[in-house]
Design goal:
Its EC number is 2.7.1.-. The chain is an alpha+beta fold. It is built from 18 helices and 21 strands. The protein has a seven-stranded mixed beta sheet with strand order 17-18-16-15-19-20-21, sandwiched between helices. Strands 3-2-1-6 form a four-stranded mixed beta sheet, with helices on both faces. Strands 4-5 form a two-stranded antiparallel sheet. Strand 2 and strand 3 form a beta hairpin. The longest helix has 27 residues. Bound molecules: beta-L-fructofuranose.
């Protein structure tokens, strides 16, 4: 292959970026062209994404990328999962997409599980029960009358690429987060759709990463200042799918933690694990690039810290993340630990107050300062990784000898060290931009700039991107004791 430049649009729950990737058989070079915030907007009690604002930023990012690289070979889009926009029969967007942390799904999961059977749902879709899975959001939307005029449901990256290209589709890795995808066939579970009384035509044709995704519409071509209709390539449009594709693993004996707003902790498999034990542990079998299975569990993640920081800033303090983390490193370990998976931490709001409630209820000292709260969050996250990593290995039977931490969390040295200690395995931290790398690699392969399977793509990441190694310091007894306190 000959080196090519491709653009990755990567939207996370707290911010987005457009990156230019130069990729060839021995080259992988990523430049951030445009970064922007992603701030949800509450309107009349409903939390929405500012989708038009995000689209505008995507256009601005592409314009800047094309100014530097007029030869741009392809564009690919990924974002967080589960959320969607609804189009009417003429292709117009019906309302701004609702945020997965909105409370419209309160109670819905329990009702749907009772109706269809939690065991049956897991057997068909292999998906973990999360209250914001698309299926529960669609049921909530139907009850609110929002599906009456709806012709098509588009997941966020599919919606943006529809606006760019005019082409409709449902990219399969992200479709796997809807809980409406049949995990064995990688096709829509139309039987579930029908039993829930959802409109049959709502779900567009599925597309696989690597497929052509159309070309920029003439009006868009003008808006971004391109001199031709630049192609769009379908990528692993679920951000976690792209992140896992971008892990610099040297063989398959690895566990990954894709660490951003969420921490996705798991292994990559060839086929799903659909046992009852797996369902009870709430492990998910999401789809990955090249037909792989992302066998993982959601851990609440850096959300706990991001949302705490937002609260401190709103209260007038001007906390600096680096300073808070440095101070947290000096706080007594395990003074207080909480179960990160507690659903009380899901909605936006005062996280330190909720942590304080849990600590009072469990007879632990209440963390007071930002440093103490942060230490409690990081110790607790590491404990959640310890439990989840053990379960992933046990339930899948996969042996691992290293943990790859990718995403923004790879920058957090304290968290990486605690993770190595908690799990008793070396941590390889980085790249921070694994998601954008996975995105550009799948595009680069589609346009012929590189070849090979996931192993070859990963080896290119390993050869070109810096990683930092953390060795476990061997405090196993202390971690085991802390874990017992959580379950006591
Ligand atoms: C991570 C992520 C997770 C998904 C959550 C909500 O960014 O995509 O994989 O469970 O966001 O969509």
């Amino acid at each position: 292959g000959r080196p090519a430049v491709v653009a990755a649009v990567d939207l996370g729950a707290s911010g987005g970026r457009v990156m230019a990737g130069r990729v060839g058989p021995d080259d992988l070079d990523l430049t951030a062209v445009h970064r922007f915030g992603n701030d949800p907007v509450e309107v009349r009690g409903t939390l929405h994404w500012n989708i038009l604002g995000l689209y505008e930023q995507v256009l601005a990012g592409l314009r800047a990328t094309l100014a530097d690289h007029p030869e741009l070979a392809s564009v690919g889009i990924d974002s967080w999962g589960c959320d969607f926009g609804l189009l009417d029969g003429h292709g117009h967007l019906l309302g701004s997409p609702v945020h997965y942390r909105d409370r419209r799904t309160d109670g819905v999961m329990a009702q749907v599980s009772a109706q269809l059977g939690a065991g049956h749902l897991y057997d068909v879709t292999g998906l973990q029960a999360l209250p914001f899975n698309t299926v529960y959001q669609l049921v909530a939307a139907k009850r609110a009358g929002l599906l009456d005029a709806a012709g098509t449901m588009l997941l966020i990256p599919d919606l943006l690429s529809y606006w760019l290209t005019g082409e409709l589709g449902a990219e399969v890795t992200n479709a796997s987060t809807t809980q409406l995808l049949d995990v064995r066939r990688r096709g829509w579970a139309l039987d579930l759709v029908e039993r829930l009384g959802l409109p049959g035509g709502l779900l567009p044709r599925l597309r696989e990463p690597g497929e052509p995704g159309g070309t920029l519409l003439p009006a868009v071509t003008r808006q971004v200042g391109a001199d031709r209709a630049v192609p769009v390539t379908v990528v692993g449009s679920h951000d976690t799918a792209s992140a896992v594709a971008g892990v610099p693993a040297r063989d398959d004996r690895f566990l990954y933690i894709s660490c951003g707003t969420w921490s996705l902790v798991g292994v990559e498999l060839d086929r799903p694990v659909l046992t009852d034990a797996s369902r009870r542990a709430n492990f998910t079998n999401e789809s990955g690039a090249d037909g792989t299975v992302r066998y993982l569990r959601n851990v609440m993640g850096l959300w706990l810290l991001q949302e705490s920081m937002r609260g401190w800033a709103a209260a007038g303090a001007r906390p600096d993340l680096a300073a808070v983390l440095a101070a947290a490193a000096e706080v007594t370990p395990f003074a207080a630990v909480v179960d990160c998976d507690d659903p009380v931490f899901l909605p936006p709001g005062d996280i330190p107050a909720r942590i304080a409630d849990v600590c009072r209820r469990t007879g632990q000292p209440v963390p007071g300062t930002p440093a103490e709260v942060t230490r409690c969050i990081l110790d607790s996250l590491a404990l959640a990784y310890r439990r989840t990593a053990r379960q992933a290995r046990e339930l899948s039977g996969r042996d691992v000898d290293v943990i790859h931490v990718v995403g923004g969390g790879a920058r957090n040295g304290l968290l990486c060290q605690l993770t190595a200690d908690a799990c008793g395995l070396p941590v390889l931290a980085g790249p921070v931009e694994a998601t954008a790398l996975g995105n550009v690699l799948v595009q680069a392969r589609a346009v012929g700039a590189v070849g090979g399977g996931l192993a070859e793509l990963r080896s290119l990441v390993a050869r070109t991107q810096p990683v930092v190694r953390y060795e476990p310091r061997g405090h196993e007894a202390a971690w085991a004791a802390a874990e017992r306190r959580l379950t006591a």
